[in-house]
Amino acid sequence: MSNYEFSQSFAAQLDKDDELSHFRNMFHIPRQNDREVHYFTGNSLGLQPKAAKELVMEELDAWAELGVEGHFEGKRPWFHYHKFTKNMMARLVGALPSEVVVMNSLTVNLHLLLISFYQPDKTRYKIITEGGAFPSDQYALESQVRLHGLDPDEAIIELVPRVGEHTLRTEDILAAIDEHEKELALVLMGGVQYFTGQLFDMKTITAAGHAAGARVGFDLAHAAGNVVLQLHDWQVDFAVWCTYKYLNSGPGNLGGAYVHNRYANDPSLPRLAGWWGYNEQQRFMMKKGFVPMLGADGWQLSNVNVLSAAAIIASMEVFHKVDPRKLRRKSIQLTGYAEYLINEVIRQSGLQAEIITPADPEERGCQLSLAFGEKGRAVYEHLSAQGIIVDWREPYLAGEPGVIRLAPVPLYNTFTDVYQFGLKLAEAIAQAP
Ligand SMILES: *Cc1c(COP(=O)(O)O)cnc(C)c1O
After folding, report:
1. Is the beta carbon of 106 within 6 A of some atom in ligand 1?
2. 49-67: per-residue pLDDT in tens?
3. Distance from the CA of 168 to the center of ligand 1, in angstroms?
4. Phi and psi (nearest 5°) for 363?
5. Pairwise CA distance, residues 28 & 46, whole Å
6. Domain residue spans of the chain
7. What is 53-319's CATH topology?
8. Considering the domain 8-36+323-431 in this protein, what is its CATH number?
9. Does the global pTM surpass 0.90?
10. Residue 255 CA: which ligand 1 atom is closest?
11. Atom of ligand 1 nearest to the CA of 242
12. Ligand 1: which residue has its CA nearest to atom 13?
């Protein structure tokens, strides 16, 4: 039985008891008609930390005052700028600092690491991935396969849920790895699936991929800053993510990349190289012949986009102040409350709708995906007009329904936000044509 109640006073009490409630004050909350919205799209674009402006201004000032000398002078010399995000970012993904670097953007990083970790030959060339993966990942895989002169239809194995189910079972993922064992070169999946919100069992999948002789990588766009990650201990080979979703760094900001330290100094891995990946001590000697930095830093191509990275530091400083276990505990409670309210509303309205995100908190992050057999778009539009900011996604696989995605983010969402969502959802369903 649930301990939740569908009432404003109950939500207010949970907010009062919430020891992380003060983090909300560190963010700008968007407004609509002069009132703060109830923002549930942190899975798409996280909110702006109030400290971001100051950190970006510091670099604009350093540039104004120091010019090129800013590379080695000032509070945070630009030459070392990729190091200022490293420790906190490593903690967030469960990696060693040397295994992590902030650079480029997600899809670029995915390509760079696929160049290194997808090296098909005549016998091993297949890639296992989830069906309906985020389009950019699909295009990246497809084009990488073609780059090696292979046919995507043969090389890419897309896993889909069983008939009548919406998410993948771990046992089925493992069975597929087993089935393609001899030809398998790579397993590449989301950490948290962007459409369904399913959190994959990365540890088990990695172990199975390795047992089959394949490499294993994850796209953590929806996992970083959302769920607890242990990339190093899980032995994940490589991973990429963006920083503008749960990591609140601002639109289109730089991505993250992780490479396990067993590859820190592995000359057998091919890679595309650039000067910022070159051995730091000798970088400015401008010599011929690429000598990489150890670890993930060796995959850098270009010097750091400092104005962008400044905003990431602001975000990292917020995360630095919060205990990740407490954050996850609140996340589970907050999303559990949203789940309870949605199920109450569906039950009372008799509408054809269901949550397709796994019900087990261990199999999801903060996002819930609410699928509609009818009225989905109209409900979404009503919610938006009422200051409930969620998004609508058209079906991602043939035969699947469209969904409203909502992500109650424990750093800045309140139980009252979630209550308002439940209230307005009931209203939207009642009013939908
Ligand atoms: C958001 C997202 C991306 C975005 O890629 P960019 O290169 O940052 O534009 C890629 N993959 C997944 C799974 C995403 O959720």
Report:
1. yes
2. 999 999 999 999 999 999 9
3. 21
4. -110, 20
5. 10
6. 8-36+323-431, 53-319
7. Aspartate Aminotransferase; domain 2 (3.40.640)
8. 3.90.1150.10
9. yes
10. 8
11. 8
12. 134
